């Protein structure tokens, strides 16, 4: 089976400095992979390089093949095509994905109409409105009709993240990248959004690249994991094996820190 995403010796540089070094991983349709490591280890840059979204000043080398297309060195035109169809990203802070001055229903309608056009079945008017409401319902937003006419600032953080997820789904991506999708939310809302992502990924048989520093959440969400430290892969494998029997000291220290936090939360520390 050809992988949906295949990174080979992917590196990201800023000037002469390597921020991600020779990273290789592959992800098939329907698979879920976690990318973990402490802050600054290169998780976000890996996902940005894999989708051709690196900010100016940073450059990628190596190979990143997404849905059969080489991303490294591809033109913006080619990349836009891939981003609207093969892959969508949900970021930590939903406001980055939302236009503060546009009603959220219209914001969800845009990628929906674009994707429908690409599929050769254009959507507009009442049919498009109906598709927007169905999508808001799919991400379990209450009262979709009222939601659709709201502006982002009228919604809670969790509701905004649901809108961002709806916009990602509107692209009908084969691969969903979730970059710390719940870090900005309170604990109860985090659990709800994680449950939602889990359900949607299964129902739509999407591949998931899940970026997180929350190890218990990673353990519950993905099948395989890649551990990054200062841009280098320290170990990779089945999540139960890596977490159950970590080989690298860095992975052991990440797990020990997660356990200490857990104990403190439970009042055992
Ligand atoms: N535009 C940039 N120019 C120079 N260095 C950058 C740039 N963006 C990120 N970096 C550096 O690259 C390294 C990796 O950053 P990255 O955002 O991928 O980390 P991360 O693992 O996602 O961290 P976090 O969990 O905090 O989001 C960091 O040391 C960061 O300071």
TrEMBL record:
The keyword Cell membrane applies. Belongs to the ABC transporter superfamily. CDD domains: ABC_NikE_OppD_transporters. Pfam families: ABC_tran. The keyword ATP-binding applies. Its main location: membrane. It is a peripheral membrane protein. Residues 5-255 form the ABC transporter domain. It comes from Devosia riboflavina. One of its GO terms (cellular component) is plasma membrane. SMART domains: AAA. It is found in: Cell inner membrane. Keywords: ATP-binding, Cell membrane, Membrane, Nucleotide-binding, Transport. This is ABC transporter ATP-binding protein. GO terms for molecular function: ATP binding; ATP hydrolysis activity. InterPro entries: AAA+_ATPase, ABC_Ni/Peptide_Import, ABC_transporter-like_ATP-bd, ABC_transporter-like_CS, P-loop_NTPase.
